[in-house]
Amino acid sequence: MPHHRHFAALLLLAQLLPAQPPAAPHFEFTANQRLAFPGNYREWIFLSAGRGMTYGPTADPHGPPQFDNVFVNPSAYRHFVKTGRWPEQAIFVLEIREAKSEGSINKGGEFQGAVTAIEVLVKDPKRFAATSGWGFFEFDKKQQPAAQLPKTATCYACHAQNGAVEHTFVQFYPTLLPIASAKNTLKSAAPGH
Amino acid sequence: MPHHRHFAALLLLAQLLPAQPPAAPHFEFTANQRLAFPGNYREWIFLSAGRGMTYGPTADPHGPPQFDNVFVNPSAYRHFVKTGRWPEQAIFVLEIREAKSEGSINKGGEFQGAVTAIEVLVKDPKRFAATSGWGFFEFDKKQQPAAQLPKTATCYACHAQNGAVEHTFVQFYPTLLPIASAKNTLKSAAPGH
């Protein structure tokens, strides 16, 4: 192939290829502003798990302790690793699962069973301008698209006051806490760090 | 651009682009057959977490209960979702973390602290022919490349006998267990499923 045609081909290549591979859309809103269930969140980045934590909206001090797993979309995770902050369109899933103690060869402790609740948090300063740029959602067992929780929901004030980085509980995410500390993005008022 | 040059450009494009993006290598062995520490495992697929489980090699019935998190490389995960079996070169990381109960606004339950142990399992029928195709590794705190654990280590017999799918404890991974059940890949002798 002559050089000039090679060059033309490379020009076309540059036009056809984005500078970086496009990120797969990780969530979407329906026409009536409901968040569609992010069905692939188990393939996102795992931030941490806890058990029986009482700060959560679904905690039941009289019920058996449950596990919680937290996931974030991969591009937001990579942004946080670089900057210690969350980009717009960051989305977090808090998955609550029952704790099981009897099963197979396990003779003590607990492992995870069925999902009992799914909560989602999205950062979008324009869409959620009325709630400081963050929107909370709860999904039912049918995983129907969910409307944003009203600004009176307790999660808004609690995350704003107690989240170590922005509205998020980075103090409970052991791989992110040292990053936020190094990038100096921890709120000075946040407890526990 | 004339059609024939457009076509030539597309031919070049086809030559330059692989059919699928090449998978990033997810682990490697050193020249002396030691497994290099898989430093990016926290970006792999999370399978589940437990707490205080006593079946593990690092369990201490007299020490405080710890959390365990299990991760698998993404391409092996996708293979399992399709087939209910693990491909060659599947690699699993079992990360043990201390459980913390006092911190920030958490008034009960436990969240995860520092890593206390890292165990790795690799499926490679050729490399590990002497141990049924599976190799176990433990990493020290310096994350130096690790030699395969000897075949006398208890993990080999325990995983072979008790793993619900091949050498893995799918019975404790709530998103994989229904897949293995549907694909009929659960061992008939495996307990607890």
Biggest sheet record of chain A: 5 strands, antiparallel
Strand order of the largest sheet of chain A: 1-2-3-4-5
Work out the helix count of chain A.
Answer: 4
* Unreliable stretches covering 5 or more consecutive residues of chain A: 18-22
Average pLDDT of chain A works out at 85
Ends apart, CA distance between termini of chain A: 62 Å
Strand content of chain A: 15-25%
Largest interface: A-B, 56 and 56 residues
How many domain modules of chain A? 1
- The radius of gyration computed from the alpha-carbon positions of chain A, rounded to a whole number of angstroms, is 20 Å
* CATH-derived topology of chain A: Chalcone isomerase
Based on secondary structure, the structural category of chain A is alpha+beta
The helical percent of chain A reads 10-25%
The CATH class label of chain A is Alpha Beta
CATH superfamily of chain A: Cytochrome P460
Q: H/E series of chain A, N to C?
A: HEEHEEEHH
Describe the structure.
Two copies of one chain form a homodimer. Chain A has 193 residues and is α+β, with helices and mostly antiparallel strands. Chain A has a single domain (40-183), classed as Cytochrome P460 (Chalcone isomerase, 3-Layer(bba) Sandwich). In chain A, 21% of the residues lie in helices and 22% in strands. Chain A contains four helices and five strands, in the order αββαβββαα. A five-stranded antiparallel sheet of chain A has the order 1-2-3-4-5. Chains A and B meet through α1, β1, β2 and β4 of A and α1, β1, β2 and β4 of B.
